[in-house]
Each structure stands twice: as C-alpha cells, then as structure tokens.
Known about the structure:
The protein has 446 residues and is mainly alpha-helical.
Amino acid sequence: MSAWRHDLARLASAAVLAQLVPLLVLPWLTRTLPAEDIGRWTLFAALASNFAIVACLRYEYALVLPRSLAGARSVLGLCLTLALAWGLGLAGALLALAALWPWVEALCGTSATLVRWASLGGVLGWLPLAVTLAGVIQALTLWHNRGGRFAVIGQARVANPAMAAAVQALGAVSGPAGGGAHVLSGGQVAGQALGAAWLGWKARADVRRLHRLARWRWQRRRWWVLARRYRQFPLVNTPHAFINGLQDTVALALVLSSAGPAAAGFFGLMVRVVMAPTSLIGGALSEVLLGRAAQTWREGGDLVPTIHRSVAILSAFAVPSALVLALAGPTLFASLFGEPWREAGEWARWLAPCMAGRMIVGPLTVLPMILERQATALAFSLSGNVLYVLALWVGLAQGGLAWGCAAVSLVMSGYFLAFGLWLVRAARVAHADRQRAGGVLQESRT
C-alpha cells in the first residue's frame, strides 16, 4: 500500500507541475505577443488536443490487458502505427485544403468568417506532427504504466511543458515579427517531441523488439485480431472522449467566427485560467474520492454521506474562488496579463458560477462507475456538452461574449445541480437495492 501511495503522489505532483509551468509563463507571453497570435495558437492547441484523443483510437488503454509481453508489444505496435497514420492523413488533408483554397474563396467570396479562418494561416501545418507525437506519448505512457515505471511517466509529464514553456518564452522575444502563433505552436510541438523522446529512450530495450513490424503481412493479421478483441475502446470510449473534448474546440471556433482571432485569444486564455483550479484541485480529490468510495461500496456502505461530505469539502474551495473571480476578475487579469486583458477578466466574472459548479461536480463523475450507472452518466455528459455550446452561441448572437459567458453559467449551473441530484438519488436507490437483495438472500438461506 505504501508503494501505491508513493506512485500516486509522484504522478499527482508531476501532473500539478505540468499544469503550473505553462500558467506561470502565460503572463510573459500575454505581455509580449498580440492577442491575435494567442488566439490562433489557442485554437490550434484545442484542435490538436481533440485529434490526440483519437490518435490511437484509445487502443493504448488495452496495453495493460494482455497477459503476455508479446501481446502487449503487438498492441504497442498497433498504437504507434495508428498515430503515424493519423499524422499522414492530416498532412494530406491540409495539403488538399491548401490546393482547393482558391476555389473556396471564389465560392464564398470575402466573408468575414472566411477571412477569420484564413488568418490561421500556416499554424495548422503543425497539426499532423502534434497529433502523431501525442499518440506516441499516450502509447508509451501506458507501456511504462504496464511495467510500473511511474517515475519515467512523471519525468516526461514535467519535461513536456517545461520544454514547451522555454521555447515559447524565448521565441516570443527573438522570434520573427508576426510569427508569434508559429512560435507558440512550435514550442508546444517541441515539448511533445522531448516527452516522446524521453519515453522512447526509456523503453528502447522494448521498442527494439518491434522489428517484426517490418513483416507487414504477419503483423497485419495480428493487428486485425487485436482490433477486434479490444473493439470496445474505439467503438465506445473513443466517441465519448472525443465529444467531451470537442466542447472547447467548438466554443473557440464560434468565438473565432463571430469576433475574430483576438477575441478567441482572450476567450481561450480566460477559460484556461478560470478552469485551472478545477483541474488542480478536482483532479487530486477525485483520486482520493474514487478509492474511498470504492472501499465504502465494497463494504456494503451507503455512498450518499460520502457525496455530501465531498460536496462540502469541494464547496469550501469553489465558492471563495468564484467570489474572488466575480468581484475582482478584471483587476486580476489586468494585473497578471496586462491591461489589454482586462476585458477577459470581465468575461471571467460571468463565468465564475460555471467554474464553481465544475469544481464541485467534476470529481463526483467517478462515482457512476462504482454505481454501474455509466450509461446515464454518458447521457448527462453529452447533454452538458450540447448545452454549453448552445448557451455560448445564443449569448454571442444576443450581445457578445459577456452575454455568452453569462448564458453558459446560467445553463451549466442548472445542469450541475441536476447531475448532483441524480447522483444522490442513484446512490440511494443502489444502496436500497443491495439491502433488499441481501435481505432476500438471508431469508432464502433460513
């Protein structure tokens, strides 16, 4: 148990560092680069994150399942090949789009929306490499997880953002004029390259044995068998994860289309900063909650008191944070990121209730797995994604981003309340069903 806690603490500390390092560099970047460049990079990062989810079609999670090392090695080969295929496919799609762009302009004319999307320019050229490297990192991370090499995983998780932040900070000063978006995107890819290289170097003894990939006919049959055996990962897990990740990408695309890259930069950074506490605090607490809730459930206990206690603890963090953001959001953003970012602070104060709700409810989303209510939880998740995007779209159409953020907070607060009430009811019903089943079993024995 002490070894498990040590590994968990190591990974948790690495995750916190991996999120803090980019946040510490952001004030420098916002004072050095224009908001338009940050907006282009923000959308690029959102697209790269979305495609990274499906880079290996979630087969990387099957790496821990085969009993034999040879079977796991074949799954690793499948994952690496899929990541490379995604990169080549995206590169081909971007080249085709570049070739067809004159016809697109001729068809659509010079609409404001088309001009805003054209402003992304060559930044999307980094996308194939970013997606391939993300797939490699995911596959090798799960490979090291299988071998219990958690120190290597933690080192890579810290090295990735550290390299990215260093390249971005230096490039923001010495980079070419007007090339800030390329500096930011290239820095992100450089960090991924270092993380993938470190994981690959530490797995070099295992990766060398992938030479059988050259035997294409044999490997093709083997991968087909593996793809069918673990088909639940691409068929069930991939759509769920992809749709969840699509929420932020669609939101940024809406802002870019309606208000331009500068507004997308303000909005993207604002959301990232506002939601950072939910990742730092909620992520750590969800790990603790999952273990304790699972133990309570195994022992036949009721999860309702655990839910109430968790909500109280999380509210103690969420409510003061939301109040500070609502009262001093513009001043905080102007002080941290520069005076031009004061408007982003105005939007942030309207998004504060949504941040508080996500911080409280987010860690509780692990409980439906214990209660075996994953299907209903999936329906809630998809509904929340749709409500978020629709509320932002309606707010943008009515009065701009301030209205959009207010609409998101209003709608999502109701969503979080509904999810919490359903979770409490599901826990009560599940506990009552277990008690009735236990009583029936005891009567049948007597």
